[in-house]
Amino acid sequence: MAELLLAEAFEILRESLPSYLPRCRWFASKASRIASVGAWEDFPMGEGPFPRLLFLNVSLDDGSLERYALPISCVTENASLQGQKNATICQVRDYFLADGVFDPTFRSLILEVIAKGKNLSGSRGKLTGLPNPAASKAFLEVATSGDSRVLSAEQSNTSIVYGDRLFLKLYRKVEEGPHPEGEMVHFLTEAGFSHVPPFMGFLRCEPADGGLPFEVALLQGCIKNKGDAWSYFTRALELSLSSLDEVGAEDETRGTFAMASLLGKRTAEMHIALASEGEDPAFAPVPFEGEYKRRALEAAYAQLDEALAMLERHIGDLQGAARALALRVLEKKKRASDLLETSFAASGGEALRIHGDYHLGQVLFTGDDFFIIDFEGEPARSLSERRRKQSPLKDVAGMVRSFHYAANFALRKLNDKEMGVASSRAKAWYRAVCELFISSYRKAVREAPFLPQKEGAFEAILKAFLVEKAAYEVCYELNNRPDWMEIPLEGIASILEG
Length: 498
Prior knowledge:
- By secondary structure, this protein is of the alpha+beta class.
- The chain has helices spanning 2-20, 104-115, 137-145, 180-190, 229-242, 249-274, 290-314, 320-331, 333-345, 383-386, 393-411, 416-445, 457-480, 486-497, and strands spanning 34-44, 52-60, 65-75, 88-92, 95-99, 119-121, 125-131, 148-150, 157-162, 166-171, 173-174, 199-207, 214-221, 286-287, 350-351, 363-365, 370-372.
- A hairpin with a 4-residue loop joins strand 16 (363-365) and strand 17 (370-372).
């Protein structure tokens, strides 16, 4: 009966997935039509037919192929497990197939595979749990027996918390080769960087045909926190701006200044740890010259060109301040291009493994300190691109741009009557937190060889990365939030006109 049900379930599942996958937040190619879906590999997680972990080959209408991890559980009622409307995939007889992450049994089994170092065999590969040998066995056992829940804030992956002690990230879109986040967290933990949730283990798939192994899930220690740094800084600034005449507003502002300085220090410590390896070729620092500088310059040029082309196409759609800023930026496109050329020519320093997608949302706030998370890099880029060594100032630029967004986000919460004084105060706050963040960063790294040492080179390369990041934001806002266009345009204009 179980085998019959399984065969029937797989056929119905295959027919249902082309319409189900685009509804999932983690499905990357929503703009493309799915041509077909097939199972690349299938691993039973326990003794029975369900739950299972499927790896799907998704063929798109442009001829490309993507692979996704999809846990499958069988439930007896058509309910959105844990309140998730897309939990249920399809019906098979009197049963319903659902995304297994919402099934406590699956969550327990996947953790057990990692914690106990189990091996699961399939027809095309092997699924292997790789726990951190340094992790406390008792800690893992306690966490395994505790409650688990799926975090609601999901995008490209799915996160599960076990007993508030372990954090598992299940990668949905998978590619052969080492995953940058697993590499980075493992390396930083081994290097003694204490402001990253500690590495506890991997779930790895090893293809039987000689293909490269790939990580399916990353297990880390859970950090008690009060939200991310974005929430902390924006809430504090909102309070300050809405209480301009009240006692305590200045104290709130000074508090964010101190924390901006601390964040600069933690960022520097992360880069120092990442630069500490001289033997592992995947992490050994290299001079930021030759191929590394050429690729960085080409990437910046490409991003700027894309942003300027989109502005020219959509200039008629922009109004008010956004349109005026766009015209100012377009008038100075040659200046922007020249800035990239001269900045990279004077750069120097070293290329390292960096965070790659560094902003306030990638930092946890504990109440008095910060922990850095989400080392995946930009999800839209390939694994090889995300693992590429780059100047650490790209991370610094990402955080500076994030502070600019935070200042503007806080302003948007105010009414027109409050905007006058608050606007100048928010701009002053932004300048202050950036100066403190950067000065603290430079003080902490001192004369580390990964920073450019020539006079003015630090500032020059930072400006180039700021332009590149703001150009990326222009493209994003035009596609998703046109009413936010003023923020990245102001960022580019201030550099070109400064």
